[in-house]
Amino acid sequence: MELLLSRAGEADPPPRTFGCVRKVYDLALAARTEAWAHLQAAFAGFFGKRAQYPRFKARKKSRKSAEYTTSAFRFRDGRLTLAKMAEPLDIAWSRPLPEGSVPSTVTASQEAAGRWHVSLLCEEPVLQPLPAPETAVGIDVGLHHLLTLSTGEKVANPRHERRDRIRLAEAQRQLARKAQGEGANRAEARRKVAKVHARIAGRRRDHLHKLTTRLVRENPTTVIEDLAVRLMVKNRSLARAISAAAWSEFRSMLEYEAQWYGREVIAVDRWSPSSRLCSACGILLDKMPLDVRTWTCVCGTTHDRDVNAAKNIPAVGLTASVCGADVRPQRSTPGGRSATKQKPLQRKR
After folding, report:
1. Distance (Å, whole) CA 254 – CA 262
2. Cα end-to-end span (Å), the chain
3. pLDDT for res 259
4. Beta strands 221-226 and 264-269: pairing type?
5. Active site residue 225
6. CB–CB of 313/147 below 8 Å?
7. Which residue in the list 225, 255, 257, 264 is annotated as catalytic?
8. What value, to the nearest 5°, has the Cα angle with vertex 202 and ends 197 and 208?
9. Which of 136, 155, 295, 326 pairs as cysteine with 147 (C-beta 3.0–4.6 A)?
10. Is the distance from CB of 344 to CB of 126 less than 8 angstroms?
11. Could you write out the DSSP letters of every residue in 278-311?
């Protein structure tokens, strides 16, 4: 039954009630929209063959994280307070936020090693493009040397995983000896294994950040190979070494740092015969086994296999880019062009 109030009076519902209703509705809509977006990203990774089919989140194995929208946190004078908390978080900032920027989303997460992290999403002022010297560098990735540049420089592979392999194996043995279940001893052993993995990942990430930043600052155009790392790790003999080298993470860092500073990253087709092509005269050999590290061309030039490949990569990439390359290499389409060009974008934090 619906009643009609003839005029406003003291018995009427307070006006703020309607505002509360709108607030609850908006928060619920935002929560549903955010959950749908995360699930959509999971399905996109599955259909792109980058991840498995989305599964229900397990209490032990799922990533511990929570996102807070603008109404669920307060950021004032450099201090962050989340909803349901009376005091600000005691945060050791990795770097200050850009001046004048206001966070729009806060993500709090806990890694398996027990450390807590807080990520703040905010708009950052457009960075000034770096000076553009007239150079382009080609990069050939490897296992013995992590990178070989077209300039002849070789960057050693630090092999962070190998340096901590004994410590990791001991921690894993201790975990295997613990009884299955919810015991505190097993939880502590699991944290010790996670700490070793975190140490390895942190050192690797720090090294790659420094390396990619240097490459982006020194070169306006960087040309790399479009390697199918997901397929390469199926080789049981090389899977551990390829995973430790983190070629995919290196490329990802290189691309988004190039976007920040207005640089270009071009990826050439992985099937380009860069190792078999003489960078001096252009003669193409029929085959070259992997164990051949140096070879001499009929023109008399002696090549280091990796350096020669790195010299050929920028020539192929720049030629395809000038002629007009597709957005992604297309091996299934006859005549598909074979270069990927990274365009500058506005930086988001």
Report:
1. 12
2. 53
3. 87
4. parallel
5. yes
6. no
7. 225
8. 125
9. 155
10. no
11. -TTT--B-S---TT--EEE-TTS-EEEHHHHHHH
34 catalytic? Reply is no
Give residues with Cβ within 8 angstroms of 182, minimum separation 6. none
pLDDT of residue 181: 79
What per-residue string of b and e applies to 101-125 under the rule 16 or more CB within 10 Å gives b? eebeebebeebbbeeeebebebeee
Catalytic position from the list 161, 226, 257, 306: 306
Extract the tokens encoding 311.
């010299």
**CA–CA–CA angle 292, 146, 136 (5° rounding):** 95
Mean pLDDT for back-to-back runs of 10 residues, the chain (349 residues): 48 64 80 77 84 78 83 88 89 82 88 88 71 77 91 91 91 92 87 93 93 91 89 88 92 91 87 86 85 87 90 80 48 40 46
262-277 in b/e form (b: 16+ CB < 10 A) is bbbbbbbbeebebbbb
How far apart are alpha carbons 339 and 332 in whole angstroms? Answer: 15
- pLDDT at site 320: 63
CB-neighbour burial class of residue 30 (10 A; exposed 0-12, middle 13-18, buried 19+): middle
Q: How many CB atoms lie within 10 A of CB 52?
A: 9
Q: What is the rounded distance in angstroms from the CA atom of residue 294 to the CA atom of residue 303?
A: 6
Annotated catalytic residue: which of 140, 255, 257, 269? 140
The rounded Cα 25 to chain-centroid distance in angstroms is 35
Encode pLDDT of 279-320 as tens digits.
888 888 888 888 888 888 888 889 888 999 999 888 887 776
3-state secondary structure 186-205: HHHHHHHHHHHHHHHHHHHH
The 8-class DSSP code of residue 88 comes to -
Measured between alpha carbons, how far is residue 55 from residues 38, 39, 202, 230, 235 in Å? 13, 10, 28, 21, 27
**306 catalytic residue (yes or no):** yes
d(CA 198, CA 115) in angstroms, rounded, equals 10
C-alpha distances in angstroms, 290 versus 49, 276, 294? Answer: 28, 11, 10
